[in-house]
Amino acid sequence: MTKSSGNGFPDSTNLVFIGGGNMAAALIKGCEKKEFIRKENVSISVQTEKSAQKWRNQGYQNVFTNTLEMLDKYPTAIYVICVKPQVFEEVVSSWPVNSRPRFIISVMAGVPLKTLSAKLPFVSGNTTIIRLMPNVASSIGSGASTLCYEKNEKIDDQASSIEYARKFAECVGTVEIIPERCFNAAMAIGGSSPAWTFMYIESLADGAVAQGLGRAEAKRLAAQAVLGAAQMLLNTDSGFDIETQHFALLKDKVCSPGGTTIEGVRALEKNGFRSAVIEAVVAASKKADDMAKMMEK
Ligand SMILES: NC(=O)C1=CN([C@@H]2O[C@H](COP(=O)(O)OP(=O)(O)OC[C@H]3O[C@@H](n4cnc5c(N)ncnc54)[C@H](OP(=O)(O)O)[C@@H]3O)[C@@H](O)[C@H]2O)C=CC1
Ligand SMILES: O=C(O)[C@@H]1CCC=N1
């Protein structure tokens, strides 16, 4: 009998990554660390020989600079699309018509399921296509991913594919399975917000540096303060229940009457802090909506 390592699929199942950049690296390394996959079952296609060599130097042997050649070699593997959305059309053009992947996971922002199906007519129909939106913290196993797919009872054993994708995403952090109509909004928080959080932490440090604190101390302190605050929201040991309680409960605990923090709250509100953050989420989400519309053309 074929051995299985608990992911529901035989150990010999090949995972084929189209694109081998930051996201592919985070996912591959996270899955390997959790022994979900092994190097010998991973194939990667990249654009440049330089990137291919980087992967080979890390012990990956199945590395290609020609996607068609790779997909030809693994016509029934699990495919993970990890290229930029702008490159997707090019990838489609080098997709062999006889490939029959077990299922497909796409991490591309702004490329909806219906576009993926329409652009890959020869593989869709009886092939589950899953959208997964990981984030940069996946590279250290602290990602916050979202996943969506279209339920189709005609597809054989679709539930196993979804379960595999869920476990795959869990190798690099948490995963929320959500309807596609909310996917771009979730992407703005899960996928994009780490960039804004880095900006926020940088600004905290800048403020303290302006007031005389050393740069290194300010950076460490700011990062740890943000981490601790996030952990209080997620860890019930803080007495906070994220399902039922309002974030302001914790904010109010920090704001002593007549104290320092409330002065900072006042300054933030005066400068449109919350509105700026809300608008950033809406802007990122709308950009993904626009990208999806462009893709339809
Ligand atoms: N960065 C992030 O935080 C997140 C990104 N995403 C999504 O992940 C996807 C990838 O992003 P990211 O990993 O950051 O991008 P990168 O630029 O790091 O990686 C893109 C990869 O695609 C390869 N590539 C380019 N053209 C081709 C081609 N024709 N055939 C095969 N491979 C090709 C590149 O090769 P080479 O290395 O040789 O240039 C590179 O390895 C995007 O669609 C993005 O929307 C999703 C969530 C978060
Ligand atoms: O900026 C982007 O388009 C990608 C998707 C989410 C994070 N990075």
From TrEMBL:
Reaction catalyzed: L-proline + NADP(+) = (S)-1-pyrroline-5-carboxylate + NADPH + 2 H(+)
* Primary enzyme class: oxidoreductase
Which segments does the entry list as coiled coil? none
Please give the Gene Ontology molecular function terms for this protein.
pyrroline-5-carboxylate reductase activity
Question: Which EC number(s) does UniProt give?
Answer: 1.5.1.2
Q: Which residues form the Pyrroline-5-carboxylate reductase catalytic N-terminal domain?
A: 15-110
Q: Where does NADP(+) bind?
A: 18-23
Q: Does the keyword Oxidoreductase apply?
A: yes
Q: In which pathway does it act?
A: Amino-acid biosynthesis; L-proline biosynthesis; L-proline from L-glutamate 5-semialdehyde: step 1/1
Q: Name the chain's protein.
A: Pyrroline-5-carboxylate reductase
Species name: Caenorhabditis brenneri (Nematode worm)
